[in-house]
Amino acid sequence: MSVSSAEDIEALKSRVNTARSEIAAALSEAKQAAETIIERAEQLLGLSAEPAIGDASIGILEACGFQDLTGQRLKKALAALDRVVAEIDEKDFGLGLMGEDPDYAAWKEANLVHGPANPHEALDQSAIDDIFANAK
Q1: Cα–Cα dist 23/34, whole Å
Q2: Count of alpha carbons within 13 Å of 113, Cβ hemisphere only?
Q3: What are the CA-CA distances from residue 74 to residues 15, 33, 69, 87, 131 (Å)?
Q4: pLDDT average, residue stretch 100-118
Q5: Residue 30 to residues 25, 34, 46, 71, 101: CA-CA distances in angstroms?
Q6: Residue 37 CB coordination number (10 Å)
Q7: Which of 4, 74, 101, 118 lies at 20 to 30 Å from 39 by C-alpha?
């Protein structure tokens, strides 16, 4: 997607925030599910004197380690999405949303001096006529 308007930026931020919300919900639901599985496996472990049930319960508890690993990865993904939104908020994308970045201003001065000006930056025709009139 090319960013060409403030609406595009807001749409991009909205999609990132939707993804962030979905990841946060998945993180919460996975945590709740893992806690329930662990609780039930611990109950089975405490209730049964049967070694096979004890071994199965321990296997279930060990398998629930996925929740910690996926939780860490999802938290990293959330942090990355937060950074994307922060970077979007920090950028202007040449749309005049935040005032001009000094680096961009220097680049524009060096690279666009001889190119066509934006309508709000261009000299009007009478100023151009005055320049030529004074050059004679």
Answers
A1: 16
A2: 5
A3: 17, 16, 9, 20, 62
A4: 57
A5: 8, 6, 24, 8, 43
A6: 15
A7: 74
pLDDT tier, 85 (very low <50, low <70, confident <90, very high otherwise): confident
What pLDDT, on a 0 to 100 scale, did the predictor assign at position 120? Answer: 59
CA 13 to chain centre: 7
Percent of the chain with pLDDT over 70: 72
At 42 the pLDDT is: 93
- List the structure tokens of 114: 């001889």
Which tokens sit at 49?
């004197």
Q: CA dist 48 to 2, 44, 54, 73, Å?
A: 61, 6, 7, 35
Tell me the C-alpha distance between 33 and 56, whole Å: 18
Residue type, 17: N
CA distance 38 to 33: 9
pLDDT tens track for 4-47 = 677 878 888 888 888 888 899 889 999 999 999 999 999 999 88
DSSP category for residue 99: -
